[in-house]
Amino acid sequence: MANHRCGSVSEEEPCCDISKKTKICLCVFFGLLVAVIIAVPVGILMWRHPLQEWKGKGTTAHFYEILLGRCYTYTQIVRPELGHKDCQKIGKAFTTAFLSKDPCSSTEQDYQPLLELTAQTVPCNKTLFWSKSSQLAHDYTRVQGDLFTLEDTLLGYMADGLKWCGDPRSSEMNYQSCPDWREDCSNNSFSVFWNAVSKRFAEDACGVVHVVLNGSISNTFDERSTFGRVEVFNLRPEKVHQLQAWVMHDVGGVHSDSCSSSSVNNLKRILKERSIAFSCQNNYGPIRLLQCVKNPEPSSCR
Amino acid sequence: MTARGLTPSLLLQLLVVAGAAGARWRGQGTTPHLQSIILGRCAEYDALVNPDPRGRNCTAIWEAFKVVLVKDPCSVLPSDYDRFIDLSRHSIPRDKSLFWENNHLLVTSYSENGLRFLPLCSVLYGRIGDFLSWCRQENASGLDYQSCPTSEDCENNAVDSFWKRASMQYARESSGVISVMLNGSEPSGAYPVKGFFADFEIPYLQKDKITRIEIWVMHEIGKPKVESCGEGTVKILEERLKKMGFQYSCINDHLPVKLLKCVDHSTHPDCVLNSAAASREIPPLWAEHGASHIVPFLVALASAVHM
């Protein structure tokens, strides 16, 4: 009848008035209880905080619903000629590109299926690039409905203003934080996406293309911007024969001639080397009018 | 405000579908993927545009909207949307309300997505319905994707009742300076005496919350001015507001809006700005390649002076 499961209890030692069998059950029970008490918090900690912590803002709340809603709005209402696109497939391809992956090791290949599903023809002479002039460029395409910025194409429209990233140890999106380009890593899923779509947008452009530049800042043409790094170098000289820049100055600000500034001349030089003609206009009329809508007071707006 | 705000391409689609299928009703059919669009718009509004600190339940909002989708297409009343409005309503900042008739796209551009003004299409319940169409089939339980009734088919149709209810709510929640944009080139008159603004917005304006009403009568660039302030239907509107005890003013071609219209007609004489004229007069010296000519000239002039 001697049983040593719960340690060396000598038969001679009397213990309480419980039988040996009861003692065994109690030992097992307490042993399991201790194990559970230790295991559960550890398990919870590991399960609830498996995600890496980054310096940037996390995935936008309701990311997937917004993505799908925008896809349908775009393909059914904004550009009904794309009504045949399968938004469910597109949404899946988008999330597959970054879920369960290291958000600092994103590659353009990850986004290839998505790019294929969202291919879209922008008519020649209708491509509008922008750099440090987002508000103005988009105000213009909102009014001039036949021009396209990247954010007026299906994929750009879907992703505009959203933030996303995944985590290798989870199948969930990381809503807490996402890598910051500067402080964490540059090959993050967000930046890689925009580089990939900007590249394609430039590759697809044809005819005379335009760019809205900001003449009120010092680096009107910034070689480190997406326009300077990616778009300019992916224009196809056999399809794009001219890039026309519209350099806009703030209304009521100092009028300077940015078309002949050194940074714009730099752009001209780069394009010349790529056999693409360049022309430039300060304060292109229609866009100047848009600026005046916001600020009709200055004499230059009357 | 037009119920569906049809763009030219939508209008074409409507004609094609209605013509091809021998459709039951005159209006565009239910927008495909209605649920996803509505959920997405609600989610986007909550995440990006105007988050509600209490948190909006977009699923509940959709469930509340859904109730009209099981009703007979000609038996939907504005009050059927009461619960939907209750869940999706939010306050409108003072002086930001913008009412309009016959210029949906201009209003959308001018209001800048709610930054400058907050027209009905920029508040959550308006945003949800904007450009969409929906109705149940006449004799079956599913949605009708072929066509939906307009007011000419029957009064109590799902879409018109939606906008009536939404308009009433929007008017009730407006305060401060109220702006109204009318189209003075519209042949049938700038102020539709029977319309959403006249029947479902003006009657619900809260006099004690409103300081004054500003009417802008806009005209198409290069097109005839059918009506202006103090004329025709605009006069009818002005008199109605006066009778109701509102302080009001009327401006023809309110400048900021006119400038926006000019973007598409920048070379039209009505649209030329002083600065544009000035920059065209700037001598070629300051043009792109001009600087290379002036320097030798100045040098020559300087040396001539020194002699």
UniProtKB/TrEMBL annotation, chain A:
<dbReference type="GO" id="GO:0005886">
    <property type="term" value="C:plasma membrane"/>
</dbReference>
<keyword id="KW-0325">Glycoprotein</keyword>
<protein>
    <recommendedName>
        <fullName>ADP-ribosyl cyclase/cyclic ADP-ribose hydrolase 1</fullName>
        <ecNumber>2.4.99.20</ecNumber>
        <ecNumber>3.2.2.6</ecNumber>
    </recommendedName>
</protein>
<comment type="similarity">
    <text>Belongs to the ADP-ribosyl cyclase family.</text>
</comment>
<dbReference type="GO" id="GO:0061809">
    <property type="term" value="F:NAD+ nucleosidase activity, cyclic ADP-ribose generating"/>
</dbReference>
<dbReference type="GO" id="GO:0030890">
    <property type="term" value="P:positive regulation of B cell proliferation"/>
</dbReference>
<keyword id="KW-0472">Membrane</keyword>
<keyword id="KW-0808">Transferase</keyword>
<dbReference type="Pfam" id="PF02267">
    <property type="entry name" value="Rib_hydrolayse"/>
</dbReference>
<dbReference type="GO" id="GO:0016740">
    <property type="term" value="F:transferase activity"/>
</dbReference>
<keyword id="KW-0378">Hydrolase</keyword>
<keyword id="KW-0812">Transmembrane</keyword>
<comment type="subunit">
    <text>Homodimer.</text>
</comment>
<keyword id="KW-0521">NADP</keyword>
<dbReference type="InterPro" id="IPR003193">
    <property type="entry name" value="ADP-ribosyl_cyclase"/>
</dbReference>
<keyword id="KW-1015">Disulfide bond</keyword>
<keyword id="KW-0520">NAD</keyword>
<keyword id="KW-1133">Transmembrane helix</keyword>
<feature type="transmembrane region" description="Helical">
    <location>
        <begin position="24"/>
        <end position="47"/>
    </location>
</feature>
<dbReference type="GO" id="GO:0016849">
    <property type="term" value="F:phosphorus-oxygen lyase activity"/>
</dbReference>
<keyword id="KW-0735">Signal-anchor</keyword>
TrEMBL record, chain B:
<comment type="similarity">
    <text>Belongs to the ADP-ribosyl cyclase family.</text>
</comment>
<keyword id="KW-1015">Disulfide bond</keyword>
<dbReference type="GO" id="GO:0090022">
    <property type="term" value="P:regulation of neutrophil chemotaxis"/>
</dbReference>
<keyword id="KW-0520">NAD</keyword>
<dbReference type="GO" id="GO:0032956">
    <property type="term" value="P:regulation of actin cytoskeleton organization"/>
</dbReference>
<dbReference type="GO" id="GO:0005886">
    <property type="term" value="C:plasma membrane"/>
</dbReference>
<keyword id="KW-0378">Hydrolase</keyword>
<dbReference type="GO" id="GO:0016740">
    <property type="term" value="F:transferase activity"/>
</dbReference>
<dbReference type="GO" id="GO:0001931">
    <property type="term" value="C:uropod"/>
</dbReference>
<keyword id="KW-0808">Transferase</keyword>
<dbReference type="InterPro" id="IPR003193">
    <property type="entry name" value="ADP-ribosyl_cyclase"/>
</dbReference>
<dbReference type="GO" id="GO:0030890">
    <property type="term" value="P:positive regulation of B cell proliferation"/>
</dbReference>
<keyword id="KW-0732">Signal</keyword>
<protein>
    <recommendedName>
        <fullName>ADP-ribosyl cyclase/cyclic ADP-ribose hydrolase</fullName>
        <ecNumber>3.2.2.6</ecNumber>
    </recommendedName>
</protein>
<feature type="signal peptide">
    <location>
        <begin position="1"/>
        <end position="22"/>
    </location>
</feature>
<dbReference type="GO" id="GO:0050848">
    <property type="term" value="P:regulation of calcium-mediated signaling"/>
</dbReference>
<dbReference type="GO" id="GO:0050727">
    <property type="term" value="P:regulation of inflammatory response"/>
</dbReference>
<dbReference type="GO" id="GO:0016849">
    <property type="term" value="F:phosphorus-oxygen lyase activity"/>
</dbReference>
<dbReference type="GO" id="GO:0061809">
    <property type="term" value="F:NAD+ nucleosidase activity, cyclic ADP-ribose generating"/>
</dbReference>
<dbReference type="GO" id="GO:0001952">
    <property type="term" value="P:regulation of cell-matrix adhesion"/>
</dbReference>
<dbReference type="Pfam" id="PF02267">
    <property type="entry name" value="Rib_hydrolayse"/>
</dbReference>
